[in-house]
Amino acid sequence: MPNIIKTDNPSSKKHFSTKKKLIIVGVILLLFIGGAVSGWFYMQNNQAAQDQKQQLAEEVIDQTTIDAQAMARKGDTAGAVAKYDEVIETTSDAYQKSILTINKAIIYLNKEDYETALSIAKEAEAIDANFGVVKIIAQIYEDKGDKPNAIAYYKKTIELIDKDSPMAADDAIYYQSVIDDLSGGN
Amino acid sequence: MIRINKKIISRLMLVIIFATVFAAGTYVGVKAYSGTFFGRKQGYGYFENEKYKADGNGYVLSDGIKKTSVSSFISYLKDKNKKEDSQNGTGAAFIVYTMLGKSGKDRDRDIDGDDWDDLEERLRSLDNRGNIDWSETVSLKINSYHQKWTETKTKKGKTTKTTYHDDAFYSNSDSEKSIVFYDDDGKVLYALAHKCANPMGSVDKGLPEPNKWDVSVSSKVTKTGSLLPGDTVRWTHTVKNEGPDATDQDVEYRYENNSALGGGSGSDHDFDAGQKKNESESFNHTSRTINSNDAGTQWCSATSAKPRSWDNSNRITSSNACVTLLYKYTLDPFITSSQSGTIEANTSVTVTPSVRNNGPTRSRTTQWQISQIVVAPGSAIPHENTPGTSPQAPCVAYFVTAGASCSIVNNGTGTTVLSVGLSTLASRTVAAGDYEVGTKLCFAFSVQPRASSVPSNPGSDDQWANSAPVCMIIGKKPKVQVLGGDTMSGGIIQTSTSSKNISGTTRMFGSWDEYAALAVGSISGMGSGAAFAGPGMASSTVCKYSTLSFTNSGNSATCVANLSAGGGIGNYAIAQTMPGVAASFPVNATDPNRNLGNNPTIDLSIGDLQGIYRASGNVTINGGGAGKFINKSQWIVINAPTANVTINGDISYTNETLTTIDQIPQVIIIANNINIVDSVTNIDAWLVAGGYINTCSSINIAAPLSASICDDRLTVNGAVMAQKLYLRRTAGSGVGNASGDPAEVFNLRADAYLWSMARANSNGHVQTVDAIELPPRF
Asked: What is the pLDDT of residue A6?
């Protein structure tokens, strides 16, 4: 049996203890950071997956809208309209059809071609008379100076406000004030 | 009993600790996940990162935002941000920070000056590029809204309520009329709905930071040639990016003409976006071809560019680059006159100055002068027939000599510009002065400077150029006066008149008759009733000087001078022929003592000629000569109707005192033609010619006269009758009051009537006894 000479060196013990502590703290930091990064990426991937799952159709609509608006902005009205028409054909959802159609009407509204805008907007209304469609029709009437119809459609707009919207109350007040202004001007 | 190794327990504890730490890190990471919008997930307030609470919500700015310019937009937000802890204060901060792309973490609602400046720069950059539409309806999937909630806290029994305002994003596809901010591709970067000022669109990046750049522009002349007609001028126009960043939009630049080139501008050239600092681009621009009338003008062109900088859409224009077009020309002046040769004093002379610019350019502003040069008789005309130059004005020395004076008729003081080629200036009518006959009156035209100043010929170009003078000689219009009788003509009476300014009054001078003037034909120029006697007639008219001129006035009770108007002077039919004077003095054809023979030379005052004589051929009458007179009671009739009589000397009656009319001497010369030589000044005789009477036969009757030929006045005292009367004397017609002095005077004095009466009385009785007491004859 080998002789083991135990030397009771307090300084050496203390040094060992400090080193051990530093290692432990380092490991803890690494674990914490690793956990944080893992959590970040998980959430990000999870969110993207959820988005893809839920908003696939909406993304198409959004991208179409972005592209068409850019084309219209550059003066390519026909191209913008074609862009909307192309996507409208691919969906059977009435709401989506109406929103894409009303977006097409907005191209002409911005060009102050109110008759064409109104004609297309009426198509959208026929498909689905929702809040987004009706308020644009009201705006077209207002911009072309047709106050009675503008008032009528703003009233419909108020009726169609989504009560769960965070702006429902302010919207109701706002559209009523528009009606009041238009009525006062009659 | 399970024996647990102490070491294992220790390691297990370490694993548990590590797992716990990892889990804690994971939790923090999950919690730290930012979501989509500026570190905030949907529905979480931008500032407080609190989930939406139901106390209240609505529009980001209660009154929405409808602005039409960057300035009003910024001012509006600053105003809303004044009360930071309110809905609008929070909303304004929310809008500003999200436009700047800033995270909401640890951000208060107090917007500092740098952030405002940053926002304004970004907005101006977008606005200058046309990437802001202040009213456009857009469809976007991201919307935002205002949050409001109240928290109640109790501390040490005291309850406090705190109201919070915040704003959050959420997914909500919608279309709103908005202020829309686009990128250069037309895609929506950001939008603020008019009704609520809710930020919408792809708002996670904010508005792009602007590229900051300014352009400088410059122009320089890069080709000029000789700057004379036919050349062109070329400019180079440059635009340069002065940085510090690259340009982020196209800059249009062009030339702009100025000064004499007018205000036109060229078409735009593109300085494409993406030009780095100090990069530049140029183009050349060439002027139209210089023409002769461009000389002396300044042609300038500048460079203009728009936009001038990243934040200023206005135009920047460089200073002008200019050239002054040169003059190159020489001038040759000349002058023409309405009169030439000989003119009478005070004649109106119209002079027309002209100048030929030999080019190739128009002249500078040029002064000019019409000079009148008066040259005394016998003196030389200065620079006659020779144009020349002078350093001084022409009347200072050039046209001045001992015998010539110079004065200015008209001048231009240096505003006349002469085009290439011939230029004719306004004519000037000058009344020739009342100068002595023989005076030369000249006119000249001068211009200064005579040529362009060019380096090869400095100095002399600035001189006067003088034309050769055009000259006239002052002559006269001789006049005749008929005194004591009428003038009667079977044809016309035509004499000249002269108008002169005498002591400030225009007076007319001319030939005149003391009594009546009668002519079968017209009478022109001849005054009657002593019209022009004395110092001429002021305010003269034809009718005024024709008061005793006979005319057929028709139904008019007044004088009508103009023949074409139914008037005219003269044209008075006289049923009368020239009296047969010869028949009144019958000559004894058989008495040899009464025949002076063929071609005789007769001295009337010598010898004892008395009575009627006949002669033939060419009869020469010497008169009496100096100091010789026709004596008292002597009368001589030379009745030679076929002879040509030449009077060589004065015929003068005695100047003795006569006591009876029988003592009146008288001479009557009856001939075919009567010629009077130039030296004869006085003829006391009747002159009756079946042909003509020539008052100066010393030169050919068709030869031109001058003031020095036949220049003695001839006075004829007696009746004068002839088929033709050649008035060839040039005497008289002097200056001033002597302007009407006659060359010939025909004076039918009373002695002619008295002698006739005496002769008639002596012939009125019949002599029956003729007793002559003769001496005794032994």
From this structure: 46
- In the predicted structure, residue A151 carries a pLDDT above the cut 60: yes
A18–B contact, CB cutoff 8 A: no
Q: What is the pLDDT of residues B53-77, one digit of tens each?
A: 656 688 999 999 999 999 999 999 9
Q: Which residues of B touch A170 (CB under 8 A)?
A: 58-59, 62, 196
Q: How many Å lie between the alpha carbon of A4 and the closest alpha carbon of chain B?
A: 22
Asked if B173 lies within 8 A of A73 by C-beta distance, the reply is no
Rounded Cα distance between B611 and B396, Å, is 71
Helix (H) or strand (E) holding A13: helix A10-73
Tens digits of residue pLDDT in B629-687: 888 888 999 999 999 999 999 999 988 899 998 899 999 999 999 999 999 999 999 99
Confidence of residue B111 (pLDDT cuts 50, 70, 90): very high
Structure confidence at residue A52 (pLDDT): 45
CB B427 within 8 A of CB B370: no
Are A31 and B137 in contact (CB < 8 Å)?
no
* A40 interface with B at CB cutoff 8 Å: yes
Residue B244 in contact with partner chain A when CB distance is under 8 A: no
Please check whether residue A177 touches B, CB under 8 A: no
User: What count of CB pairs under 8 Å joins A to B?
Assistant: 125
- Please, is B772 exposed, middle or buried when counting C-beta atoms within 10 Å of its C-beta (0-12, 13-18, 19+)? exposed
Summarised one tens digit per residue, pLDDT across range B589-643 is 888 888 888 999 888 866 678 889 999 999 999 876 666 788 888 899 999 999 9
Closest-CA residue of chain B to A107 = B137
Q: What is the four-CA torsion angle of B540, B543, B544, B545, rounded to 10 degrees?
A: 80
**B84 DSSP β-pair partners:** none
| Average pLDDT of chain B to the nearest whole number | 87
Q: Tell me the residue length of chain A.
A: 186
Measured between CA atoms, how close is A181 to chain B, in angstroms? 14
pLDDT band at B761 (very low <50, low <70, confident <90, very high): confident
Decide if B331 contacts B463 (C-beta within 8 A): no
- Whole-number Å distance between alpha carbons of B350 and B372: 12
Going by C-alpha positions, the residue among B635, B643, B646, B637 that lies closest to residue B613 is B637
Picking from A107, A38, A98, A35, the residue whose alpha carbon sits closest to that of residue A69 is A107
Read off the pLDDT of each residue in B538-565 and give the average, rounded to a whole number: 79
* CB-CB under 8 Å, A73 with B26: no
Q: Using CA coordinates, name the residue in chain A closest to B201.
A: A66
Kindly report the average pLDDT of chain A as a whole number.
83
The beta-carbon neighbor of A40 closest among B21, B33, B140 is: B33
Residue B283, chain A, CB below 8 Å: the answer is: no
Query: Quick one: pLDDT at residue B100?
Result: 93
Chain A touched by B505 (CB under 8 Å): no
For B14-42, b/e burial (b = at least 16 CB within 10 A) is eeeebeebbeebbeebbeebbbbbbbbbb
- Number of Cβ atoms within 10 Å of the Cβ of A87: 20
- Which positions ≥6 away from B575 have C-beta within 8 Å? none
Report the predicted TM-score, pTM, of the whole model to 2 decimal places: 0.58
pLDDT of residue B369: 95
Q: Go through the domains of chain B in sequence order and give each one's CATH number.
A: 56-200 (no CATH), 213-324 (2.60.40.10), 331-475 (2.60.40.3880), 480-565 (no CATH), 581-762 (no CATH)
Nearest chain B CA: its distance from A161 CA (Å):
12
Question: Given CB atoms, is B195 within the 8 Å cutoff of chain A?
Answer: yes
Query: Is A20 in the B-facing interface, judged by CB distances under 8 Å?
Result: no
Does residue B55 belong to the interface with chain A, where contact is any CB pair within 8 Å?
no
A58/B28 Cβ within 8 A: no
- ipTM of the modeled complex: 0.74
B196 touches chain A (CB under 8 A): yes
